[in-house]
Amino acid sequence: MSILINKDTKLIVQGITGRDGSFHASKMKEYGTNVVGGTSPGKAGQEVCGIPVFNTVKDAVAATGANASIIFVPAPFAKDAMLEAIDGGVKLVICITEGVPTLDAVAAQRYAKIKDVKVIGPNCPGLISPEESMAGIMPTNIFKKGHTGVISRSGTLTYEVVYNLTQAGLGQSTAVGVGGDPVVGLYFEELLRMFQDDPETDSIALIGEIGGDAEERAAKFIKEHVTKPV
Fold first, then answer.
1. Is the pTM here over 0.85, yes or no?
2. Are residues 85 and 150 in the same domain?
3. Number of domains within the chain
4. Is there a domain that residue 76 lies in?
5. Last residue of a domain, which of 96, 120, 144?
6. Is 140 found in the same domain as 105?
7. Is the same domain home to 70 and 17?
8. Considering the domain boundaries, does residue 47 fall inside one?
9. Does residue 45 share a domain with residue 22?
10. Is 170 domain-assigned?
């Protein structure tokens, strides 16, 4: 089992006709992710890598039954893209975009909580449930299916730790890059709780970064609520 995404996740790519969106849509599809559509205003009817393009998230969800969206749009448009996804009917939004203004991120995260939509990012590498689904920009070759959950503030440190876990024979249930910005969506405590409740995760790797007190708060949460090795 995994958390947040699995082989049944139906993903759409916002900004799919852009350079980054089209490249990573192709990579995610190659990995086996069920990429069911993409959005780009005014370009409905086109295809990218065999993936149908729609004008809006709402149109894409209505046509495909998508339940997750990943965002590859320039920073000035990221807030609107997140709000559109939240309103469009998906339950998980992954925002890869770097440089999103802090107040834009605050507005999007607040709205997501009101609508009960989970957000990962912005400024994150995404997440992967190995051999099931990948929504992000992660190097899939280093991951192996297993029972260790990974939570990280740092993209590159995620890859270093996962590489060594895999080399040691410790596969991963799900790995989540939460993002390095001051304001992001799901964070240590929420993800620790999900892995604690996941019967197929038997240990957790938590990767911090310089700045803030997130690691201290996570340590307190682990002491009080987590029984699995961290």
1. yes
2. no
3. 2
4. yes
5. 120
6. no
7. yes
8. yes
9. yes
10. yes
| Size of the chain, expressed as the number of residues it contains | 230
Walk along the chain (230 residues) and give the pLDDT tens digit of each residue.
689 999 999 999 999 999 999 999 999 999 999 999 999 999 999 999 999 999 999 999 999 999 999 999 999 999 999 999 999 999 999 999 999 999 999 999 999 999 999 999 999 999 999 999 999 999 999 999 999 999 999 989 999 999 999 999 999 999 999 998 999 999 999 999 999 999 999 999 999 988 888 999 999 999 999 999 99
